[in-house]
């Protein structure tokens, strides 16, 4: 938890003239949760529902505050958040069933929550870069004989890196 200010600081420095405070709040909170969930996913190979509930609750709080500050911009953001969440949540839910549950249910819920935080404008890029990095890592590890086709790879760290890249590169 002591690393909470780190994503805000990095984004604040890099994006200081490109994001308002509400966008910074959503971005920093999403990155912080993704970081914590990455560590848990690497160690325990699970995405805890309790943290996902906290992530959803904090989103609702931030959305409420943004509605009080600027209703028109907040409504636009909430509409894009709903589209991003529904779009990527549905894609990952379909992938969950098509992969015969090789993709974790926590990953599906996390991507739907990421859609709320990142909105439809950034979620596709974040997931694309995360999955691309995961694929490259997996192929390299299979070539090195460290992984087989049946081994699982924690997805959340790659989603974290993909999200961070989207904000860092202003995508």
Keywords summarizing the entry:
mainly alpha, globular
Structure commentary:
By secondary structure, the chain is mainly alpha-helical. It is built from six helices and no strands. Helix 2 runs antiparallel to helix 3 and helix 4 crosses helix 5. The longest helix has 39 residues. The mean pLDDT is 88.
The biggest sheet amounts to: none
Radius of gyration: 16 Å
Tally the helices.
Answer: 6
Broad structural category: mainly alpha
Characterize the quaternary organization of these chains: single chain
Number of strands: 0
Give the CA-CA distance, first to last residue.
Answer: 27 Å
Mean pLDDT, to the nearest integer, reads 88
Q: Percentage of helical residues?
A: over 70%
Strand portion: under 5%
Poorly predicted segments: none
Order of helices and strands: HHHHHH
Q: Note the overall shape.
A: globular
Brief summary of the model shown:
With 171 residues, this protein is mostly helical. Helix content is 79%, strand content 0%. It has six helices and no strands.
Summarize the helices and strands and which ones pair or pack.
Elements lengths: L4 H10 L6 H24 L4 H21 L1 H28 L6 H39 L12 H13 L3
